[in-house]
UniProtKB/TrEMBL annotation, chain A:
GO terms for cellular component: membrane. The keyword Transmembrane helix does not apply. Gene3D superfamilies: P-loop containing nucleotide triphosphate hydrolases. PROSITE patterns: ABC_TRANSPORTER_1, ABC_TRANSPORTER_2. This is Iron(III) transport system ATP-binding protein. Keywords: ATP-binding, Cell membrane, Ion transport, Iron, Iron transport, Membrane, Nucleotide-binding, Transport. It comes from Aequorivita viscosa. PANTHER family: SPERMIDINE/PUTRESCINE IMPORT ATP-BINDING PROTEIN POTA (PTHR42781), SPERMIDINE_PUTRESCINE IMPORT ATP-BINDING PROTEIN POTA (PTHR42781:SF4).
Automatic annotation (TrEMBL), chain B:
It holds the Pfam family BPD_transp_1. One of its GO terms (cellular component) is plasma membrane. It is found in: Cell inner membrane; Cell membrane. The keyword Electron transport does not apply. GO terms for biological process: transmembrane transport. Belongs to the binding-protein-dependent transport system permease family. Residues 54-259, 331-533 form the ABC transmembrane type-1 domain. This is Iron(III) transport system permease protein. It is a multi-pass membrane protein. The chain crosses the membrane at residues 12-32, 58-82, 89-110, 144-164, 185-207, 240-258, 290-315, 335-355, 367-390, 396-422, 465-482, 516-537. It comes from Aequorivita viscosa. Keywords: Cell inner membrane, Cell membrane, Membrane, Transmembrane, Transmembrane helix, Transport. The keyword Cell division does not apply.
């Protein structure tokens, strides 16, 4: 069942400004968690506020539970929408106790039922002991959970979270992310969370939507986004990757680093003569190998120590052992790629022999 | 299925529009009436009086501007950069002159300098020097400039001190490391950076100068405001009063424009949110430290302690004759009127700002701001601007009831309350706006996302969180209303007095010593918010 559906939503803050949100459409099924990812100013928080009814779009339509809540100048007021929201700064009511905070959104329930619901929700978030305390007496992580409990207590159809983890330190963050996902999944609630941290998105979301300059670039599962990004921006956002120039030849691709075997028909151009493509692969999706196996090779130009692995910048410099394609040397000079290596003994000037484990053939962006 | 509504329209928007209309009507009335034909005395005033109104107002503006600039900036620099004995007391003591309405300051100084006053007595008794008449005649233009300067400089001082404190100490330190001395740091770094603040303070002073009636009237200096009074009371010529008011309004609007223009897009002081406060310099020699103490003490003596002592002296002489049950009633009436009006101001400000808070349209903020415009418009102008629509309304009511009841509204306290609201809305508005800003928008938004209606959110969340700001708004408006003179003089019902008008009436009727009783009540009341708010501000940093 579709819970939320956005249809061509646009928003400008001032007439002279660029669109903060530019023609965004997507929908979400019941129980799904969506992460909206993008740099600051990409429009992701605006989108969240539009759904909550704190802003009104210039155009487009929003449906919640198959009911139109925004269309044209008409809008359902925030307090009548069944959305819960967790703010970046948590926005706990400082003058109310934890119990009163969580109970605030519960209306039309008997006192007994309210009490039961509050304790139930606090139990889920592990805060049952602190009901009489005030927000300022809690740690950052606890405040975060109170904010979540408060939003969840009225059982909203849709939970919205604006940068929910950004005020937590790194160690706490990993733990809270897992907890939050557990809680939301347990309650079977549909949720949208906004974040600029791709780790947040990967560890909590079922689907990720990437935004840039108000536009929705891609919406997909984390796996699909990581391994098959639709654009260079999306690829770069989720870690080091390479777009290697190649020409299609019989039995594979000719690259500046050597020959890669693979499907030999040109997937994009109808003209299969001199067909140019790009090979997309992640920095970690290579195997290092010895001279006996078929391989690509290059020279280490720069190596950066990063704790659990080493990052290598490798420049094309064909060695005599690597498999060669035809002698068309019409590649750009000085191409370089990024590789990750668990072995940490590389030095600049070393020769690297490697093999692509996994790659996608992409159209050249010209 | 829940009902959808037009996204920007609700009861709050409607209410806010009504409040704005109420507050802006007087100002628009004046500007529109400018196109009517002027009154019969207009020609006389234009040829004989207008040039001197212009030149006197201009000289007064420039003189007081310069005076408050020198006093305000120097005091602010001393207390924010140097460390000397008593510095942390002077920091807030120097605000106290604000509690002293300038016309009461004027009365005190006439007393201080007259034959029986302490200065001449000192010369006579100790030095055997005799004067005929006052030691210095201050009942003239230089005197008015002096009085207004010492009573208004705290506006510049407060804003300027805040600006010096906010400036990043790193900038000043960088200048020192680059080889500048303190004077150069002041003239090249600190003062230029504080310029928008200084100009803002002086603009406020300018508005107060144009608003003043008591001082210039007592000293016989004819300005625009005294011209409005002459047209209204002496000539009974409303249209001429309106025309003078309109010209004065245009001058004020020009001043506001000038201030905004000079500020431009500059916002140097808040470049960094967490600028380290400046480390104060401790002068090497003990005597230098005491020099700063002495300078601050002299300014405080002249601008507050001496005139206050004079009031106490007069009260000790006359209280048996003045303090009676009638004086008690006067205080009661004056206080209830001020409390009623200031509570109304706070409530309207809350309503207006809450409508802005709820509105999804950003620009409503700028529209709502115009409600605070009354603070810039001289009281006499607002009085005229409120009076005209009220008289029309009275005429309409009489016509409806087919009976010539007359001045139901325009002769009542109601009109005075409306005028106070128009004039002092800014005081409440700014205090409550600050409260909302500090609380942030998210608590309100989260409450509404939890299903609370706007009104429930206001009661349960916003109001409890801004209650200190509400108290400050009421207190500040209360004190301002208590001190108010020109507007009250024009609009007070027949035979109705506030402490301010009582002091004015007595002083103009050669009962200056007796007037001190009412003045003292006003001044002592005015000290309360300065001490209270100061302790609130200090509490935050200590």
């Amino acid at each position: 069942m579709t819970i939320i559906e956005l249809n061509n939503i646009s928003k400008k803050y001032r007439a002279a400004d660029k669109y903060a949100v530019d023609g965004v459409s997507f929908s979400l099924e019941k129980g799904e968690i969506l992460a909206l990812v993008g740099e600051s100013g990409s429009g992701k928080t605006t989108l969240l506020r539009l759904i909550a009814g704190l802003e009104h779009p210039d155009g487009g339509e929003i449906r919640l539970n198959n009911e139109v809540i925004v269309s044209g100048r008409k809008s359902l007021p925030t307090n009548k929408r069944k959305t819960g929201m967790v703010f970046q700064d948590y926005a706990l009511f400082p003058h109310l106790t934890i119990y009163e905070n969580v109970a605030f959104g519960l209306k039309g329930l008997k006192k007994k039922e309210t009490e039961q619901r509050v304790y139930e929700t606090l139990e889920l978030t592990g805060l049952k002991e602190d009901v009489k305390k005030y927000p300022h007496q809690l740690s950052g992580g606890q405040q975060q959970r109170v904010a979540l409990a408060r939003a969840l207590a009225p059982r909203p159809a849709l939970l919205l979270m604006d940068e929910p983890f950004s005020n937590l330190d790194t160690i706490l963050r990993d733990q809270v992310r897992e907890e939050v996902r557990q809680i939301i999944k347990t309650m079977g609630i549909t949720a949208i969370l906004v974040t600029h941290d791709t780790k947040d998105a990967f560890s909590t979301a079922d689907k990720i939507a990437v935004m840039l300059n108000g536009k929705l670039l891609q919406i997909d599962t984390p796996d699909a986004l990581y391994n098959d990004p639709s654009s260079a921006y999306v690829a770069e956002l989720f870690g080091k990757s390479n777009n290697l120039e190649a020409t299609v030849e019989a039995g594979g691709f000719n690259t500046p680093f050597g020959f890669v075997s693979g499907p030999a028909d040109c997937p994009f151009a109808t003209d299969s003569e001199n067909c140019k493509v790009k090979l997309f692969f992640r920095a970690e999706e290579t195997d290092f190998c010895n001279a006996e196996e078929p391989h690509l090779c290059g020279m280490v130009e720069q190596c950066t120590y990063l704790g659990d692995h080493m990052q290598l910048k490798v420049r094309c410099n064909r060695c005599n052992t690597c498999e060669k394609g035809s002698e068309t040397e019409n590649f750009l000079e000085n191409q370089s790629i990024m590789l990750k290596s668990a072995v940490q003994t590389w030095k600049p000037g070393d020769t690297v022999r490697f093999r692509l484990k996994n790659f996608k053939v992409k159209e050249t962006e010209e | 299925m829940a009902k959808k509504t037009t996204y920007w329209w609700n009861k709050w928007t409607a209410g806010a529009i009504v409040i704005l209309l109420l507050v802006l009507t007087p100002i628009f009335t004046i500007l529109i009436k400018l196109f009517d034909s002027p009154g019969e005395h207009w020609g006389h005033i234009v040829t004989n009086l207008l040039p001197s109104y212009f030149s006197n107002s201009l000289i007064l503006l420039l003189g007081v501007g310069l005076g408050t600039f020198i006093l305000g900036v120097s005091m602010a620099w001393f207390v924010s950069v140097y460390e000397f004995p008593g510095r942390n007391y002077f920091e807030w003591l120097l605000i106290l002159p604000l509690a002293f309405p300038s016309y009461m300051m004027a009365y005190s100084y006439v007393g201080i300098l007259e034959y029986t006053g302490p200065v001449q007595a000192f010369f006579r008794n100790n030095l055997d020097v005799y004067f005929t008449g006052p030691i210095v005649d201050i009942m003239n233009m230089p005197g008015a400039i002096f009085i207004l300067s010492i009573s208004l400089f705290p506006y510049v001082y407060v804003i300027c001190r805040a600006s010096f404190m906010k400036q990043s100490s790193e900038l000043q330190e960088a200048a020192l490391i680059l080889g500048s001395n303190r004077l150069r740091v002041f003239t090249k770094i600190a003062l230029p950076m504080a310029r928008p603040a200084v100009a803002g303070g002086i603009a406020l002073v300018g508005m107060e100068v144009l608003n003043d009636y008591g001082t210039v009237k007592y000293f016989g200096v004819d300005t625009f405001t005294s011209g409005i009074f002459r047209a209204w009371f002496s000539f009974g010529d409303i249209n001429t009063a309106i025309h003078l008011s309109a010209i004065l309004t245009l001058i004020v609007l020009f001043l506001i424009w000038l201030e905004n223009f000079q500020r431009g897009s500059r916002n140097w002081t808040s470049q960094r949110s967490s600028a380290r406060p400046t480390l104060r310099i401790v002068p090497k020699h003990r005597s230098t430290q005491w020099l700063y103490t002495g300078l601050c003490a002299v300014v405080l003596m002249i601008s507050f302690i001496m005139p206050l002592s004079q009031l106490f002296y007069w009260v000790s002489m006359t209280w048996q004759n003045v303090i009676d049950s009638e004086f008690g009633i006067l205080i009661f009436r004056s206080f209830s009127l001020a409390i009623g009006s200031s509570v109304a101001i706070a409530m309207l400000s809350i309503f207006l700002l809450y409508a802005v808070r709820l509105s999804p349209l950003r620009w409503t903020r700028h529209i709502a701001r115009t409600a605070s415009m009354g603070y810039a418009i001289p009281g006499a102008v607002i009085a005229v601007g409120v009076m005209i629509p009220m008289m029309e309304l009275d005429r309409f009511i009489s016509w409806l009831s087919a009976d010539s009841i007359g001045m139901i509204l325009s002769g009542s306290l109601f009109i005075l309350v409306i005028a106070y609201i128009v004039r002092f809305m800014a005081v409440g508005y700014n205090a409550i706006d600050a409260g909302f800003q500090k609380t942030g928008a998210s608590v309100n938004e989260v409450a509404r996302s939890l299903g609370a209606s706007p009104i429930r959110t206001l009661w349960k969340i916003d109001l409890p969180l801004i209650r200190n700001s509400i108290a400050a708004a009421i207190l500040l408006a209360f004190v301002d209303i208590l001190k108010e003179l020109p507007l009250t003089l024009i609009l007070r019902p027949f035979n109705f007095n506030t402490l301010a008008t009582k002091a004015f009436d007595m002083a103009t009727n050669e009962m200056i010593a007796e007037s001190a009783n009412a003045s003292l009540v006003v001044v002592l009341t005015g000290i309360i918010p300065i001490i209270l708010l100061n302790s609130v501000i200090r509490g935050k940093y200590d």
